[in-house]
Structures are given as C-alpha cells and as structure tokens.
Amino acid sequence: MEPLFFVMAILGCGDGQAACQQARIVPAKYETMAQCRAALPDQIAQNTDLSYPVIAADCRQGGQRMASGAKAASRG
Q1: CB 57 within 8 A of CB 44
Q2: pLDDT top residue among 70 and 9
Q3: 3-state SS class at 4
Q4: CA 68, CA 40: separation in Å to the nearest integer?
Q5: What pLDDT digit, counting tens, does each position of 4-26 carry?
Q6: Mean pLDDT over residues 29-54, rounded?
Q7: Can you give the pLDDT at residue 7?
Q8: Which of 1, 2, 12 is nearest to 44 (CA)?
C-alpha cells in the first residue's frame, strides 16, 4: 500500500472566489500538510497561466491509510 502524502490542487475561480474548479494537480508530493501549505504561495505564482480571474490552491490528502487490525464492536 502507498503511504499517506499530500498533494496540491490548483483551483481556477470566478470573481470573489465563487465557483472554484480544480484546474490541475501539482506533481509534487508532500510528506506533511505543513510542507504543502508552506509551498502554496510559490505554486500559485508558478500556475498563473490559467484563464480564470482568480487562482487559488488547496492541499489535499493522497495515498492510502492502513486500516487498523482492531475489530469494531458489533451492534446487535
């Protein structure tokens, strides 16, 4: 299974950040949410070629989490 990581989505938005849509995913993977957030300003600056009035970015979880081996209590 793949480990948990974070990716950055570049969003194109209308005026006032209304109706934002994912325009692309930055190819970099970040080990922590903090690393991803620290890279937001640079990545927004590098992705200004989109034809939207406002460009934004969002960090999102990627990869898979390992399920714990503990069984859930049965209800019944």
Answers
A1: yes
A2: 9
A3: coil
A4: 32
A5: 899 999 999 988 656 899 999 99
A6: 95
A7: 95
A8: 12
Spacing of C-alpha 65 from chain mean position: 16
8 A C-beta contact, residue 52 and residue 44: no
> Which structure tokens are listed for 28?
């970099």
Distances (CA, A) of 71 to 67, 68, 74, 76: 10, 8, 9, 15
Q: Residue with structure tokens 């922590």?
A: 32
Residue 26 structure tokens: 């930055």
| Residue 75 binned pLDDT confidence (cut-offs 50, 70, 90) | low
For every residue of 28-52, DSSP letters joined together read --BSSHHHHHHHHHHHHHHTTTSSS
- Provide the residue type at 62 as one letter: G
**For the segment 45-60, what is each residue's pLDDT rounded down to a tens digit?**
999 999 999 999 999 9
